[in-house]
Each structure stands twice: as C-alpha cells, then as structure tokens.
Specification:
Layout (H helix, E strand, L loop, with lengths): L3 H13 L2 H8 L3 H10 L6 H11 L3 H5 L9 H11 L7 H16 L3
Amino acid sequence: MESTEAQLKEMIINQYGSLKKFCELIDMPWTTLDSILKRGIANSNITNVLKITQELKVDTESLASGVITSSMPRSEASSIITVCFSGDEYTEAELDKIKEFAAFVKASRK
C-alpha cells in the first residue's frame, strides 16, 4: 500500500502540475515540503501541515491518522458537480453513471 506522503505527493502533482508550483501557491519553501514528504506528516510543524491541508481541502485530523479524506462540505462538492456537469451536455442516464463512478471511487478508498 502506498504511504500517505506518497499519496499526498501524487495528489499535489495531479492538481498543481508540480511540487514547486504548489509550494509557491502556499508560500512554503520547496525544501520544506520535500522534507515533510520524506520524513512524514507526523514529524512536521503543524503550521506547515495546515497550509498543505487547507489548500488541498484535506481533513487535517484524518491525515494525522494516515487517511486522506476531503474536508469540503458535501453541499460544496455537490455544487461543483452541478457546475461541471450542468447544461444539456449529458443525459440523465449519463449523469447517473457519473454519480455511480464517483461513489465507486470514494468506496475504493476504504
């Protein structure tokens, strides 16, 4: 199983393109983030962990337990889905499939 830090690194690269871009965005030296990812979240300064989790919208308490979960309220997540998939680009059946896939992805985390 992939470590929490490896999962975070992958998440950052997927969402921001590079660790450097992410560090610039959260105003953190690249070497600090690199150290956190190598030495572990548990060995890090809480201020730095909060910067990371707030930007990624990851629940800090869950992360401390080694689990990455969203801190985004469900209503906000639903709004994002509505904005991304609004209009007549998708049929109702296709939207149902998208929701099923999202549920599948979420269930695979456990």
